[in-house]
């Protein structure tokens, strides 16, 4: 047999590589809704600004000793009665001045962050878990469960939020942070339940749910593996915005004297104290009220950014 025929019949190792190169790169895998929303959020200045501010507030609430070593409840009336701020003394006890009890306003603003963030996050977690679970069950099963939940939510929606919290908290002789969280969560779960119910009603008729049922999937698997991931987006948006509302509610109750006790450091309690000296010492009101406004605004901006990222119609 000729030598050139043997060479021609030999397979070459370069051929598969050429075939792969001609086929081109593999197509990118489609991103999930969460990954797509996160990529969209990272491009929004509103989300980055609010996220950094919230991270700073969480750091202050978790480690207030890093920002102030002064006891927020200790005061000296003879030296610091309504002393004005010394803005040149950054991070010093007299940076924001002193209140009518001779206490450092800066220290009270720092330590008051813990209470507000704890109440806001605690209430949000409770209402999201309780309201989300009840709304999911009512929306999926329907019938008597849906009717019963709808009537219960109608009753709770008829109760003014702050007035109802005042009535509940007035029944306790000693009010702590956990008492306030429980009272606000008791009245605030209905909004999350109604949002979750509507999202589940829409999702339960989807093709992937019908396919899961046809394959014999159980109820719990359908609810938590198929329906919940596709119905949680509007709940996250509402919960993020409502977190700021709960912080305002705690401050309002403390201002009215029905929130936290006098031994707890709270922005609402400091605003109540400052209302008697607003003319001759407005700095007592300015700093706790400003911190409260900035905190609530940060969570509202975060909620708006998340809503735009999770809603395709707003992109």
UniProtKB/TrEMBL annotation:
The keyword Glycoprotein does not apply. Residues 14-26 have a biased composition (Low complexity). Its main location: membrane. It is a multi-pass membrane protein. It is found in: Cell membrane. Residues 1-30 are annotated as: Disordered. Residues 1-13 have a biased composition (Basic and acidic residues). The keyword Nucleotide-binding does not apply. The chain crosses the membrane at residues 46-67, 117-143, 155-172, 178-196, 231-249, 284-306. Keywords: Cell membrane, Membrane, Transmembrane, Transmembrane helix, Transport. Belongs to the binding-protein-dependent transport system permease family. The lineage of its organism: Bacteria, Bacillati, Actinomycetota, Actinomycetes, Kitasatosporales. InterPro entries: BP-dependent_transpt_permease, MetI-like, MetI-like_sf, OppC_N. This is ABC transporter permease. Coiled coil: none annotated. Residues 113-303 form the ABC transmembrane type-1 domain.
